[in-house]
Amino acid sequence: MAKSSRSRNPEDTEENVTTPVINKKPISKGKKKQSDLFESIKKKCNLQRVLDDWIDRYTDQDPEKSVLELLTLLFDCGGAETTITFKDFKDLEIEDAATSIVEQSDSQQYPLGSKRSKLLIENFNEFWREIVEKCKKSIIFDNYLLDMVTLWLHELSFAAKRGIRHAATQAAIQITSSLISICNDLRKDLNATTRQLAGENKNSSRQKQLKDNQLQTSSRLKSMESILIVRLFTGVFSPRFKDSLPEMRALCIIPYCNWILEYPIQLLNHQNLKYIGWLLGDHSNEPRQAAISGLCILYSNENYINQLDPFTQCFKHRIVEIAFSDKTPSISVEAIRLVSIMSNLDLLDESDVQKICTLYLVDQPEISKAAGGLIFSKYLSSTQTKIDTTLTNIINSTSAATTTSNGRKKSKTTITTSDLDEQQQQQISSQIYHHRETQLNALLEFLDKTVIPEEPYYLVQSLWTTDGKSLFVDWPFWVDYLESIESKNINDKQMGMICKFLSASVRIAVNDRVKIFTPPQLHHLAQYRAEHTPTTPMTINTDGEMEVATTQLPPTASKRRGRKPAAATITQQKSKSNEHDDEGGDEETNEQADDDEKSDEINESVCREITRQFIIILPELLVLYRANTIVCQSLIEIARYFVLDCYVTLRLQSKYTALLEAISDIFTSQPKTQLIDTISVTLENLLNNGKTPSQLETASKAALHSLFTELIDTLRLTKITQQQPSQQSQESIANSQQQSSSSSQSDTNNNNDNNNNNEESQVFPVISTLYKLDSLCKQFNFADEKFASMIFKFTDGSVNGVPIQTIDDSDSIIIHSTSIYSQLLMWSLFSAIPSKFYQVDPMNVNILQMFYLLSSRTISTLKNEDITHRLRNFMFTTFIETRSLFSPVLDLTNMTVYDISLPAENLLFRTISSIFSQENEYSLTYLKVEFIKNQQISLEKKKLAEINKSKRKGGSKKPTGAGATSEEEITSHSEKETSDHETESDGGAKNQQKIKDTDLQLLNSFVPDQQFGERAVELVTSICNCIKYSFVTQSTQLFRLLLKQIALSSSKRAVDIIRDFFRKYPVQSGKFEMEIVIDLMSSFQSTCLEEVIASNPDFQHHMFSRFRSLCQWLVSDFIRHPDTIRGVIEHFLNYALKNPQAEKLEELLEILDFLGSKLSEKSSIEFIKKRVIFNEDFPHIDLINKLNNTIEFQTIQNLEPSGKTTGKKIKQQLKFASATTATKKTAPKKRRRSSKVSESEESEPDSEESDYEEDRREELQRQKNIIKDQIQRQQDEDEEIDEQKASSEDSSDFEPPIDPKKKLKTIN
Known about the structure:
This protein is mostly helical. One of its GO terms (biological process) is sister chromatid cohesion.
């Protein structure tokens, strides 16, 4: 039988096995024949009978052949190409006999690794597990079966074929699990025998028998442990942790950790734990996740925490690092769970746990929820356990003492507090209230330490899936807590946090969730709110008379956050207008709206419960905290979800009036914009929801009328003292300032400051009132001509005829008043549109006048070159959005006969250019600042990686075998990869230091613009409307400005709008498309050469990368005409020919090389025929050659003939193919030409060609002959195939011929 005189591991020499010397023979490879065992287990079978039959063959027939059957099963499951013969198995050493299997080439396909082999995998695992269990009291101790199997598993674990390694490892896993069970049983038997032996008398027969049993059990246990440790752990599993395949490294880590806990006496040591630590630094996802999951198993058992302490001290920082910053969310989630387990055992530093808790803020839902679980475990779980215990005790005691009339106990669901007396109820409620308050204080303390303490919504969202949800939905607790708030020592900041907790809990409970870390969606004039039920909203004129308008909801209202009010039919009008613009987009819009409505359904029952709980206390709290804007905003958001029917059913109509009075008082007294917007939306939900009971309508109308009247009176009665001095006084002041001393200058400046302060104090109420009216006009229709006339007077920046000198105040007045006026125009427009026809009565002078006034004001404002960027941007976007809705009305009716002044195209284009100029300047600065931040982080990581690498030098010896890699490679591959990536574009150390100093100054001085994203979306939407409705002539400059934002803008939503627009409205003209691309690439090339970018070479390289990404998008989604790319390449090659010393020309040529790979067949041939010729001394001739080679290779690929090509077409292809050879333009070589070629060239008229051209001609002729031979060979094969097809068409074994096109590809 096969023996092993030497082993791959020195530990194997401990086995006292005498092996005869065997002369080595050449291995004879047996034919591949699947074994009976494999045929049995790969399908549904009686596995116990298969095992019994094999055991019978082993015991009654030949053990060697039976063991060979097991090995053949491994070979078949691993996909071995050949097997070994019984002679080789019997005569050769194991290492030599396994050579034919171990050295087989690798393959990804094998039976055990197939996704369809689920039954085979189950049977395979059960077979190896049960074979040890069935033999554990018999042949398992015969010193042959287990020894031979484990020795072969050790040899096969080094196979080059992954299937063999997988099969051997999977079998070893099942054998090890059974052996550990056997070792535990033997150890129990040994301990029992030892105890019995201690109680027996000396020299008795019983004592002798016990000693023999003890010796036998001890010998068997030692043998099993030796096989377990030496053969399996060291011989099979240790190489797997260093395997070259990540799935192999992760295969045995979970059972490995289970074995350590099942048999800690021998396995729980640093030698075995170190492999898990190695995989924590693996560069692949599977091993890292398996290592984290295995550690969760280890640390979940508190009995062996002390033995794990050395491992904990060594790897706890790596565990925290994985949890905090792993690139794979699932691994971070698992690591956070491990951190939670270790935190409960006090194994981690408090600072590390606190850092992991802050992950509830990340934009990954699964990571946020996992962090919420950690927060609950650390701060709330102990108190929640006390609450649950209290409630359980109540249920148990009540159910034990209370029985029904028929003698049976009440169920837990029927037990209520009525079963307890009043004293018990108060005591239990007091206990629960105390525990809830403790939980709330713990969350407040935690929030005070986080990065964004003022936004607890994210924390509530992360805790909602845990048992911490019970705190947030315990509405009676919140009511009791707020009622007793004055008796608690709580400051204003803490009160604001508590109210935000409550507001977030209400929003999530009623299913009105927001997408965390997603920028709020902007809602433009062109976006309408789609609702369900029609309604007739209230309107109020300036005389205080109530009206019921037949209009719909406003098109500019912000996204509804609250109970869905009555719907509008305005979407139907929008769909009618869109039918004239694009008919294909309606279905997508409607489907999107349906999805939004399904996802935003409000839980009505929860709203009713919240209304009943807070209906009394909410008005009192608003009056008490009316000066605290944060508290007021949070509490008013709760009122948004009130069900008004509850006021009537509970007979609390007075509380509804008190609520409206409190909200109106806060609205008129508080200037904070967020609070104003919140109140406007809440009032719209309360007053205009279509479900207001008739008993509350009077109070609703009176509250809205009173609020509107008060705001109008504030504007009317405001008087501004004019502070502007006359021109003569200004000149005298200027002259005096030049001649006066420094003290007189300071006095003058103080006087000017005082004047400005006085003006600002007078103007501020006007600005605040205009903003409040603007917010209300987005929700309600205040249809009145007098109101519109009064508002229009403010659009010139004056207050009651008095101009405002402060630029910011003047801009605010113009912006708010213009916004109100455009809202009133939209209300009037849709009020005048009948329900069936999207038309307006041409005699409606009111609408014409309002539109004319708005257009005139826009023209006069945009013509002023001195206005601020903020005002220019607002006036442009507002007018374009308003006109986008108004234009269909003008086009469909005879209103076009009226002479309405509109901004000229050149004025609009100048405005667009001016706006984009400043926006691009900010975008470049923002991109550079973000790049510098990432650069700093990369440098820090690089330094840390170098430190860790220096500490980990001197790794262990590399193991042998095709399936293994070194320990050093596994542990440091991730750090090496990161280091290589970070040093991709490093320059000299001195230059980096200079760049770093200047960039740090920019980084410290940069102030981010919080409104940039919103402004970018508005601007992009407006320009898309300009192009769509032809407000501006479609010039290349306009398209260039818009397309450039794809690479420059940091607003992802703005970029998506641009991409979707050009995907929906492609450019029709090929020539115009090519001009756009050329202009865009030239402009971006110039942008990359600007000083702000060129000052940092790394950032410049980054910008060119964005340039390449832009070109990739142009090729994939923008360019529709085949000749555009060729024209672009030719244009820039001519530019390169004329400007060989142009800066960063190599970057442009690299981009052209990419574009060359996207040329079509026809375009590539045309390019080669009209190729731009460069001299050999051109600075970037290697890049030019690379571009030509790319296009020539692309042409050859496109010229593959398909099927039966006509002779004329082949000649035509050959004619073009003569110019498709990829040759490098090096120095010409002189050589003697053949006489045949020289004779043919003598007849040509051009006899002055260079030797290089002649050599190139020869090479092209050779390529032509090759293609001719291929086509001729293909035609011959086609004729043979046709003959075979004709002769064997009637035959039953007829097979279709191979596609000749595939053959030609193979030949090429």
